[in-house]
Design goal:
- The protein is α+β, with helices and mostly antiparallel strands and about 190 residues long.
- The chain has four helices and seven strands.
- The protein has helices at about 1-40, 70-80, 85-95, 120-130, and strands at about 50-55, 110, 135-140, 145, 150-160, 165-175, 180-190.
- Helix 2 (about 70-80) crosses helix 3.
């Protein structure tokens, strides 16, 4: 009886691990779907221009940084209308391996942020690399999803000079297989 109980507990633990791994894989796949759609529709977005430049030293996206970790988790749990706090926390802890080089979008140019310390560095970097100079540069977060992958939070940052830029915090809902912007839920201008 004791051996059966132990085997049952081991089986349950393994199922839990497999389920968690599947959940992370589904979230990662949905992130690519979301981002590819986002970049494909960038020209229709009032905040984004046709040419997207992403600042990164690693080619990977980071989770949104909204300040204090616990407050960020609580905010996203409320926004995405879920009681699964652990699911949100796992996304905030895990970069999910979202690599911008793997996106299908052709309008994404990854610029190493460490080479662009000052606004004047932008012009030189673009000239040196044969890239048309954009109006500004964008930085985006990894989207954070609800457990059933039908709601998402996404942060976009825009840099257009020393004291020029802003952010938008966005709430998306998946309708008929497409991600639709429902509301800009926050942001800043500087």
């Amino acid at each position: 009886m004791r051996i059966q109980r132990t085997l049952l507990l081991i089986a349950l633990a393994l199922c839990s691990l497999i389920s968690c791994s599947d959940s992370q894989d589904d979230t990662r796949k949905e992130a690519y779907v979301f981002l590819n759609q986002f970049f494909a529709n960038a020209g229709d977005d009032d905040f984004i221009e046709d040419s997207i430049i992403y600042l990164s030293d690693t080619n990977t996206l980071s989770p949104p940084n909204l300040g204090d970790y616990d407050n960020t988790t609580d905010y996203l749990v409320d926004l995405l209308a879920t009681d699964n706090k652990e699911y949100i926390q796992n996304q905030l802890r895990n970069i999910n391996g979202i690599n911008l080089k793997e996106l299908k979008a052709k309008n994404v140019i990854v610029v190493p942020a460490s080479q662009l310390e000052y606004t004047s560095d932008y012009v030189e970097y673009f000239k040196k690399n044969g890239i048309a100079e954009p109006e500004g540069l964008y930085k985006i977060s990894t989207p954070i999803f609800s457990p059933n992958l039908d709601k998402a939070y996404f942060r976009i940052g825009y840099i257009c000079g020393g004291h020029c830029g802003g952010t938008e915090d966005r709430y998306y809902v998946k309708e008929n297989g497409k991600w639709m912007l429902k509301e800009v839920v926050g942001g800043s201008v500087y």
